[in-house]
Amino acid sequence: MSKLTIDKQITVTSGKGFHLNDFDCEYNAKINKEEAVTLRQDFLDRIEVLQEKMYASDNHSILMIFQARDAAGKDSTIKHVMSGVNPTGCQVVSFKVPSSNELDHDFLWRTNLHLPERGRIGIFNRSYYEEVIVTKVHPEIILNQKLPDVTSLKKIDAKFWKNRYESIRNHEKHLSDNGYVVLKFFLNVSKTEQKKRFLERIDDPEKHWKFSYADLQERKCWDQYQQAYDEMITETASEHAPWFVIPADQKWLMQLVVSKILLETMEAMDLSYPKVTDEQKELLKKAKIELESE
């Protein structure tokens, strides 16, 4: 029996009344790091069994979307939560700055190319949500997307963002209707903790590669990003594609919470191996006889 009880408040299925500032960056769980690591491994062992059943049944897919500020721990969370899953049934895609080819298509195109096949778990490290986060803080980026009639910043108005949120909602409804289970994680790191992690990257030569001066410049836009994340969740949280606002100041606890959410989601899917028909059973018996007679 799990010692970890997930606060229902971290699950957002409706944007009504949502305010990101109401969510803590620390999780008050009555569990220490050693217990959490042991419990997380138990969760991962159970996920591995369920993932094999999902892969064998080949009729559902899980899409896990991770969004967060810099240094919130997306990479490490994905690494630890998916460490026990068979690579055959899992795929991770990290989305960077759009290429010129990607900019020649609609903003959902490049992520659609990487949707997981039936039976697989797909993980998006960043996603189409960048198109209502970074572009919200830096709307000049939109002008490079070759959109008809969007020729100046004045054209990027409330109606523009309303249409973009609507596209995302419709997209996720379409995915849900076609067998995808969509889980969206916002890793909620505090400004104080981000500063600490940035300094660790600067002070540790082995972490220098993780630090970019551009990240520090984006930190100066903290309040603008906070507003963008708030609106993102408000506009796109739903029953079929919920947001989970995960306290991210303690990485080991964040990883445990994410793994528990994935486990509980898979358990609720009532996964099982495909049923064998009578004809297939007869062929199995025939195959056994042939093999044993060699």
From TrEMBL:
<keyword id="KW-0418">Kinase</keyword>
<dbReference type="InterPro" id="IPR022300">
    <property type="entry name" value="PPK2-rel_1"/>
</dbReference>
<dbReference type="GO" id="GO:0006797">
    <property type="term" value="P:polyphosphate metabolic process"/>
</dbReference>
<dbReference type="InterPro" id="IPR022488">
    <property type="entry name" value="PPK2-related"/>
</dbReference>
<dbReference type="GO" id="GO:0008976">
    <property type="term" value="F:polyphosphate kinase activity"/>
</dbReference>
<dbReference type="InterPro" id="IPR016898">
    <property type="entry name" value="Polyphosphate_phosphotransfera"/>
</dbReference>
<dbReference type="Pfam" id="PF03976">
    <property type="entry name" value="PPK2"/>
</dbReference>
<protein>
    <submittedName>
        <fullName>Polyphosphate:AMP phosphotransferase</fullName>
    </submittedName>
</protein>
<feature type="domain" description="Polyphosphate kinase-2-related">
    <location>
        <begin position="45"/>
        <end position="270"/>
    </location>
</feature>
<dbReference type="InterPro" id="IPR027417">
    <property type="entry name" value="P-loop_NTPase"/>
</dbReference>
<keyword id="KW-0808">Transferase</keyword>
<comment type="similarity">
    <text>Belongs to the polyphosphate kinase 2 (PPK2) family. Class I subfamily.</text>
</comment>
